Amino acid sequence: MSELVITPTRREVAHGIVGHSDAMQRMLDRVEKIASSEARVLLLGETGTGKELVARAIHAASRRAAGPFEVLDCTAIPATLAESHLFGHVRGAFTGAIDTRQGAFQRASGGTLFVDEIGELPPALQPKLLRILEAGRFRRVGAAEELTADVRLVAATNRELPDDVARGRFRMDLYYRVAVVTIRVPPLRERREDIPLLVEHFVERFSAALGRSAPAVTRGAMARLVGLRWPGNVRQLEHRIERAIAVSRGPVLTERDVLVDDDLDDAPGAHRRRA
Ligand SMILES: Nc1ncnc2c1ncn2[C@@H]1O[C@H](COP(=O)(O)OP(=O)(O)O)[C@@H](O)[C@H]1O
Ligand SMILES: [Mg+2]
């Protein structure tokens, strides 16, 4: 069983998760505590906060680390194909099923299945997911026989799933099966102290990808980045830095390089309008 990397002081990067804020450190503590158990985990957090990274960290720190890590994104599959994506199908099960296919559960056997945006799972599939979580058994679409899979489920949602349960959109029994442990991944605006580290991390990464040396970020630029709201969280910051590296030349990144027009009315310091 592998352990998350812990430095004697604080972990600034564990499994590619950058962040030294108390909020992130508390979250990583929780990840470590539950990783080696087989408990199912529901990750809660806004889009772009790093839920998939956390799911990968749980897998990497678990007894299943040598096994597969499979991702199933419920927003990326049409409702009609969702069952086949989860459980697979046999040849001829439906139009277009020209051969027998494994589903995500079978591919994840021995490892971890990460079900992203589980709140979007079509209602018709909820009892089927419940069945595999309770009995460990499932049926491929069009197959008579049942198969078994040994899978640890880690799910994520940016919805308030208990509200969906109250409204009858998400089955309560399934919710309790999935959310044995819940971990909240905090939005970036609640851990602004992580922003400089993340900026440097992405500046280095995107510069290296272009074979350039990493530019320095001016104090002014960093202060502005720290002050923005980041509704798209770390993903938005990552794209912002990628863009800045792509368009800038030279040894420093200034406010001009890292800001976009929309930032002008975003932060409290918005009076410093650029020409
Ligand atoms: N703490 C972090 N450190 C480094 N990169 C991060 C961190 N959080 C998120 N990212 C990056 O931001 C992007 C979005 O993360 P992701 O895990 O897909 O978010 P979510 O699943 O919550 O929408 C990914 O490219 C991921 O690598
Ligand atoms: Mg995601």
Which keywords apply here?
15% strand, disordered C terminus, two-stranded antiparallel sheet, alpha/beta, binds magnesium ion
Fold and architecture overview:
It is a single chain. The protein has helices at residues 22-35, 51-60, 79-87, 104-107, 126-135, 161-166, 172-178, 195-209, 219-227, 233-247, 255-258, and strands spanning 13-14, 17-18, 41-44, 69-73, 88-89, 101-102, 112-116, 137-138, 147-148, 152-157, 181-184, 216-217, 252-253. It has eleven helices and 13 strands. It is elongated. The strands form five sheets. A five-stranded parallel sheet has the order 4-7-10-3-11. The chain is α/β, with parallel strands linked by helices and 275 residues long. It binds adenosine-5'-diphosphate and magnesium ion.
Q: How would a textbook summarize the main sheet? A: 5 strands, parallel
Uncertain runs are 1-10, 270-275
Could you state the order of secondary-structure elements as H and E? EEHEHEHEEHEHEEEHHEHEHHEH
Strand order of the largest sheet: 4-7-10-3-11
Bound ligands, named by name, code or SMILES: adenosine-5'-diphosphate, magnesium ion
**Outline type:** elongated
Proportion of strand residues: 5-15%
What is the number of beta strands? 13
Q: Quick check: average pLDDT?
A: 89
Q: State the distance separating the first and last CA atoms.
A: 56 Å
Helix content, binned percent = 25-40%
What class do helices, strands and sheet pairing give?
alpha/beta
Q: From the alpha-carbon coordinates, what is the Rg to the nearest angstrom?
A: 22 Å
Question: How many helical elements?
Answer: 11
